[in-house]
Amino acid sequence: TVADLKGLKQGQLRLAAITTAKYFVPRLLGRFCQLYPGIEISLQVTNHEGILERMMNNMDDLYIMSQIPENIDVKYQPFLDNPLVVFAPVNHPLAKEKNIPIERLTNQPFIMREPGSGTRRAVQKLFDQHGIKVKVKLELGSNEAIKEAIAGGLGISVLSRHALMPNSSEFTILDVQHFPIQRSWYMVYVSDKQLSIVARTYYEYLLDEARKFAEKHGFSTVTQFENIHDID
Ligand code: PGA
After folding, report:
1. Reported pTM
2. Exposed/middle/buried for 128, CB within 10 Å: 0-12, 13-18, 19+?
């Protein structure tokens, strides 16, 4: 339709994304802005808990997150996988080992994300399932800070594989049993909110870009792309 022609789309787009998605989402915004110069965008990046808070206060059009909220009525669509892997410095003693038993992580100094982080919650859940207690040497509130600490030899951590991109020369992924923890990124919106044309346009754009990205970098995209579905 005429309204779909580029340049005719005008308005505001408010996005909020969890921290791990910030390796993916912002770099796509440039091209989106070129395609649709009439759209004004704001992107907030925060941890899982921060996203829930924004959602409850109805602050954004679309949310990008890894775990669907249980107490808020939302529609959601998975669009790319977000595996959590064990990051270590490239010269780590376990770097060359295969199929490392998860128990061996207990002798490693571990760097943990802050409370409220979805990554932390997923890691803690896996450790609890296996009765593992790691030695948390350091707690840090961002993936970048954790990467710096790993590179500085302070310990190992579990982070999204996306945090490794684009430059991986300082890090290696340890081949530990029960990893990666398989997660996805979802586009989510509050059910009683009608998606604006602008938000719908972004939604379709992101699905498309995710598909290309997945092909190029060996990630997998998730399931059917056509329909947004309800949680039952
Ligand atoms: P986080 O988000 O920044 O809250 O750890 C990542 C996730 O939930 O997968």
Report:
1. 0.89
2. exposed
